[in-house]
């Protein structure tokens, strides 16, 4: 058994090296289902090669993408039609957010690179009343249920890789070229901080080593004068 496990892990690494697929892009359509069919302005934080920003442009009047990596931002610009209502900016999302507010803010596999509470506060400030924040993030497994979900994700990961590549060897997607680092926060800590910063936020652990957070900012209530008119 002690010699079998390293062999299995090595075989999995070789399999995924030739059939890579983007775990984050897997959730893009799920994100769209959390958003209205049409809205005015969207911000994608950690926009990478721009795949999600371009999808958001099918719903939004204008989309802004921001990422700290100038190389991946250049690639996003190359991949985006000049006529598309999408603009990409190089910068720190917590310091250089393009002027808002935004009806939708998305952040996929990026928030664990930032101070978590500061990021949530920043997103809240830039979200329009009635707007929606959607985060897909990574967490550090700690509880038995965390490790159980991870265990289920391993065979599911193989199946998805096979389906998405149709069994063939495929090149690595451009969206997977950005540098990454492991998550430091546990899911329990993420939930605690999120509920303090964003009351009513909905969080769930997901397959493929991810969690989701959805928060709707309440619309501005009509004033008493308006109600009496």
Tally the helices.
8
Beta-strand percentage range: 15-25%
Helix content: 25-40%
* Order of neighbouring strands in the sheet with most strands: 3-2-1-4-5-7-6
What structural class should be given to the helix and strand makeup? alpha/beta
Number of beta-strand segments: 7
Average pLDDT score: 81
Describe the structure.
By secondary structure, the protein is of the alpha/beta class. The chain has a domain of 152 residues: Vaccinia Virus protein VP39 (Rossmann fold), CATH 3.40.50. 38% of the residues lie in helices and 22% in strands. The protein has eight helices and seven strands; from the N terminus they run H-H-E-H-E-H-E-E-H-E-H-H-E-E-H. Strands 3-2-1-4-5-7-6 form a seven-stranded mixed sheet, with helices on both faces. Strand 2, helix 4 and strand 3 form a beta-alpha-beta unit. The N and C termini lie far apart (76 Å). The C terminus is likely disordered.
Attribute tags:
229 residues; alpha/beta; Rossmann fold; seven-stranded mixed β-sheet; 8 helices; 38% helix; disordered C terminus
Question: What's this, in brief?
Answer:
Helix 5 runs parallel beside helix 7. The protein has 8 helices and 7 strands, in the order ααβαβαββαβααββα. The protein has 229 residues and is an alpha/beta fold.
Helices and strands, with pairings:
Layout (H helix, E strand, L loop, with lengths): L3 H15 L9 H6 L5 E7 L5 H6 L3 E8 L2 H10 L6 E5 L11 E7 L7 H11 E11 L6 H22 L21 H11 L4 E5 L3 E7 L7 H5 L1
Parallel strand pairs: 1-2, 1-4, 2-3, 4-5
Antiparallel strand pairs: 5-7, 6-7
Helix pairs in contact: 5-7
């Amino acid at each position: 058994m002690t010699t079998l496990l390293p062999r299995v892990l090595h075989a999995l690494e070789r399999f995924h090296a030739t059939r890579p697929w983007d775990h984050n892009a897997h959730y893009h359509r799920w994100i769209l289902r959390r958003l209205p069919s049409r809205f005015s302005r969207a911000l994608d934080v950690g926009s990478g090669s721009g795949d999600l920003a371009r999808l958001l442009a099918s719903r939004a009047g204008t989309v802004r993408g921001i990422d700290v990596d100038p190389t991946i931002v250049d690639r996003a610009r190359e991949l985006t039609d000049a006529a598309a209502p999408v603009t990409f900016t190089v910068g720190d999302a917590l310091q250089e957010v393009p002027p808002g507010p935004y009806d939708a803010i998305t952040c996929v596999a990026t928030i664990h690179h930032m101070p978590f509470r500061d990021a949530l506060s920043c997103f809240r400030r830039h979200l329009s009343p009635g707007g929606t924040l959607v985060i897909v993030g990574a967490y550090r497994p700690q509880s038995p249920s965390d490790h159980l979900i991870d265990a289920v994700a391993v065979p599911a990961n193989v199946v998805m890789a096979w389906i998405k590549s149709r069994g063939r060897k495929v090149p690595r997607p451009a969206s997977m070229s950005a540098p990454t680092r492991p998550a430091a926060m546990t899911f329990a800590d993420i939930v605690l901080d999120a509920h303090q910063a964003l009351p009513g936020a909905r969080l769930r652990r997901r397959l493929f080593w991810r969690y989701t957070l959805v928060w709707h900012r309440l619309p501005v209530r009509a004033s008493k004068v308006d109600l009496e008119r």
